[in-house]
Amino acid sequence: MSETRDTKRMTMLDERFLSDTDLQQRQQELENEIKNIDLSTLEITAEDMIDEWCNPDEPRVLRFEEIAAAAYRIKFGVEKTPCTSSHMSKIVGMDLYFKKEFLLPTGSFKERGARNTLMTLPPVEKARGVIAASAGNHALAICYHGRQLGIPVVVVMPRHAPIMKVNNCKSFGAVVIIRGMNLNESKGIALKLSKLYGLRYINGFDHPHILAGQGSLGLEVLDQVPDVDAILVPTGGGGLLAGIAVAVKSLNPRVQIISVESERASGFYASTKAGHPVFTECQSTLADGLAVPLIGANAYATAAPLVDKVVCVSEEYIAIAILRLVEMEKAVVE
């Protein structure tokens, strides 16, 4: 996106916190400070792993008012994506619509929650900066909107993170750290660094402001398809599911909310059977963005009472769906 277009889109709500010069200076300070410590010897304690916004012992249930506020807050910074009738409607024997979040600048719905969370930070936290752990889409969203809003960003990405997404995060000016054999290890490092340098850690699928931002998608669907009967929501950590469920059920309780997971990463299904979030071993799946072993506590507490059905699909069906989207919708999706 060009600087000219960014300027035209700016409103009082979207006002930059730091200038380009001050932002670059703060990013450089953070990079230098982190370089001065040996991350391989960093001791991470149980206390370091505590995230005050995501406490499994005291989960926060999302309210509709938070979603409405988030939708208004981000409306000039996250474009309303199309929700168009599908060419596959005749094949499946129903009116099928696709909400095309992949058309957003970083390619996913994660921008909604990222921008909302950044915009709700108090000034002192905006000045210090934020930190996140992500293998891709959440990191991209935080980095992109951090640059737009003039907020310093550090992201810790696991070693298996796609090189293209790593490079894109760097191109947005963020401090990118490649550490951890998996996302949980990266999260531990990010939480430790957040406490060492006073950075706000932002959980990509369970921070309450993330959930509220994702809920704006549900409001858009109701506006674009007023007579919708059911909404199928891909589910990993549960943030999108929780946001959409509250948004939609608050306005039209008759709409069914259906959670969809891979059979190889069925964390929400296992949690609903147990009655609480449970660790679920994830296997390799085409839906790698949904391979989250433990659903968020806030997300589960919010979504579980509202979801009508959970569907687990095979890798074969996921592969066929990707192929049909390319063939019939001319859409390339993850």
Automatic annotation (TrEMBL):
Which InterPro entries does UniProt cross-reference here? Ser/Thr_Dehydratase, TrpB-like_PALP, TrpB-like_PALP_sf
List, for all copies, the residue spans of the domain called Tryptophan synthase beta chain-like PALP. 75-334
* The enzyme's E.C. designation: 4.3.1.17, 4.3.1.18, 5.1.1.18
**Which superkingdom is the protein from?**
Eukaryota
Is this entry keyworded Cell inner membrane?
Answer: no
The GO molecular function terms of this record are: ATP binding; D-serine ammonia-lyase activity; L-serine ammonia-lyase activity; pyridoxal phosphate binding; serine racemase activity; threonine deaminase activity
Q: Which reaction does it catalyse?
A: D-serine = pyruvate + NH4(+); L-serine = pyruvate + NH4(+); L-serine = D-serine
Task: Please give the cofactor(s) recorded in the UniProt entry for this protein.
Answer: pyridoxal 5'-phosphate
GO biological process, any: L-threonine catabolic process
Keywords assigned? Lyase, Pyridoxal phosphate
Any idea what job this protein has?
A: Catalyzes the synthesis of D-serine from L-serine. D-serine is a key coagonist with glutamate at NMDA receptors. Has dehydratase activity towards both L-serine and D-serine.
Protein family membership? Belongs to the serine/threonine dehydratase family.
Recorded protein name is: Serine racemase
**From which organism does this entry originate?**
Adineta steineri
